[in-house]
Amino acid sequence: MSYEKTLASRVKLLRERHDLLQAEVAEGVKLSTSTYSNIETGYAKSTKLKTVIAFADFYGVTTDFLLGRTDKTLDKYGTLIIDPHS
What is the CATH code of the structural domain delimited by 3-82? Predict the structure, then answer.
């Protein structure tokens, strides 16, 4: 799986686990809702490093988890997150 597809599935997983709307996450990471939607659905052709870091900071996870270099991580609340799709 490409890193863009992995990033898409991981940000969606995290958003749903935190019971947030796309617009709420987009605001939190300083993106337009349409840009966020393109990332989450995998339509973004490339995502800037600063955006990946913003997602990691927002959710309190590692960039390695977001990019698929590891399948497990702890979020900012200490909850173990495991991607069930990996």
Answer: 1.10.260.40
Say which DSSP state 82 is in: E
CA 4 from centre of chain: 10
Q: State the Cα–Cα distance between residues 42 and 58, nearest whole angstrom.
A: 19
Per domain, the residue ranges of the chain are: 3-82
What is the chain's pLDDT, residue by residue, as a tens digit (86 residues)?
A: 688 899 999 999 999 999 999 999 999 999 999 999 999 998 888 899 999 999 999 999 999 999 989 888 877 777 778 776 66
Distance CA 17, CA 32 (A): 21
Residues 6+ apart with CB under 8 A from 35: 26, 44
User: Contact 55/43 with Cβ under 8 angstroms?
Assistant: no
Interacting residues of 56 by C-beta distance below 8 A, sequence separation 6+: 62, 63, 65, 66
